[in-house]
Amino acid sequence: MDAVLTIGEISRRSGVASSALRFYEERGLIASVRAGSGHRRYPRSVLRRIAFIVFAQRIGLTLEEIGAELAKLPTGRVPTRRDWSRLSGEWTKRVDQRIAELQRLRLGLTECIGCGCLSIDRCSLANPVDRAGRMGAGPRYWMG
User: Fold this and answer.
1) 3-state secondary structure string, 44-58?
2) Which of 97, 121, 141, 142 fits a 20 to 30 Å CA distance from 113?
3) How far is residue 32 from each of residues 11, 40, 127, measured CA to CA in Å?
4) Which residue in 43, 38, 40, 68 sits closest to 53, CA to CA?
5) What are the beta bridge partners of residue 42?
C-alpha cells in the first residue's frame, strides 16, 4: 500500500488549500481514509489526481466533467502514464476552441472597443456589412 499523508502534507506538496482538498473529497474527486483519531489520511497517489484536477480546471473543465474523466481511470491499480495520457489527449479540441475564443475577444478589444464608437452595427472593421446582425440578437458574434 502507498504511504499515507496527512491533509496538511498533501496541501503543501500539491499547493492546494486544505479546504479545497476537503471540497474535492466531498465531490468524490479524491478519497481519504480515516485514521484512528478521525483525521484524514491520503494515499501518495492522490497527488497525481490533484494535479490532474488543477490542470483540468485551468483548461476550463467543470468539476462535473473532471469527475467524469477521473471515473475513466482504472480502479484496481495506480493509473499509468498511458492512462493519464489517454484522458488528456481528448482535450486538444477543447483547448483549440478556447484559443479561438480568446483570439476573438482580443480582436474585439483592439478593433471594436478600442475605436471608441461602440457601433457594432455600422463598424466596417469588426462587422463589415452587418454580418453580426444576421446571426441574431445578443453576443453571438463574439461567441463564434
Assistant:
1) CCHHHHHHHHHHHHH
2) 97
3) 13, 6, 54
4) 68
5) 5
